[in-house]
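Tutorial, part two.
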Amino acid sequence: MVFSKAGAQTPVLAVADSLYAVGDYSQAITTLEKTEPKTEQVYLKLARAFQAKGNLKEAVTYYEIVLEKNPERILTKVDHAKLLIKIREFNKADSIFSLLARNYPKNAGFQYQLGLIKEQQQDSTAIAYFKNTIQLEPVHQDALFKLSKDELQRREYGMATNYSLMGLSANPTNVSLRSILAQSYYNQNFYDKAIPEFEKIIELGQGNEFVHSRLGFSYYQLFDFLNAIAHYKKALNFEDKNADTHYNLGKLYAITGDLEKSEIHLLMAVLIKKQPVDAEFLSLGLTYKLQKDYKKALEYFNNSLEENPDNERALYERAIAADNYFKDLGTRINYYELYLKKFEAEGNEDLIYLARTRLKDLRKERHLFEE
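Running the prediction step on this input gives:
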């Protein structure tokens, strides 16, 4: 049925809204597409329905139609730009939010969105935008999480603590910020401060292996062995093949005199440790290599070699990843030399040939550079 009169739109839009509300997005779209004339309201509902359905590019198209008709719709611009971020059209999204930020310099949300765009582009200026955000809105939860997480990763625990506390002062139930705070205390060996924060995370219904194992270790360090055992056992409920958890439980049971349980957990730790996982790490490294994330690939090739120093493929692939990741010629040459030193005499002929050829090229490049 085609509705040709604007007055007839009201009931049809109500039907579309009802379909949208119950999650029948396809039928809502069909209803809206038959509606005539197409007003801003119809196009906007189409954009939202396509977005809800997961057809993001089609949603972008309808948002753009709305904005062509009425460029002053600020909220529509925001929705449109956020969607552009999701489909990784970062330059377009950046342009929109930059213009909005200039026009509305006191709006913290626009600064935060610019930070998200920069973050996804691996642009270090993202942090500056998150700082701009909290200057405008000091308790902006998401920006404070980004900042506190960055400080935690850089081991600037004092600043990580400060940002976390700023956010928690406004929202004590923010588990993400409380986790950053707990980890900041934990990493500084302030176990008496870390424990209440981890316990609060459990009270908020977000307990997991990470939280319970950190609590187990914290209580262990404070000589509260019974609580340490209790939390390590809960950690095993989430992951029963964690060798470190079994090892710590084995030591704790030995301290408390339960030698039978101590032996069981220590043997479990040994059995789990004996399971070779170098192949899994190698596969992960190759996956990141295909994605050209050579830093992550290096990390996993190193993990594979820690598990099995005789894994030839891992040693060779590590050299390839290092060749693509490091700028220093000497460093890149060294990785190939390490591979050939270990396997040149009895390794895979194809890999050896490739390594020799690349090493020759790098040495020639270094010689030309030094002239």
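The mean pLDDT is 89. In part three we will examine how such features are distributed along the chain.
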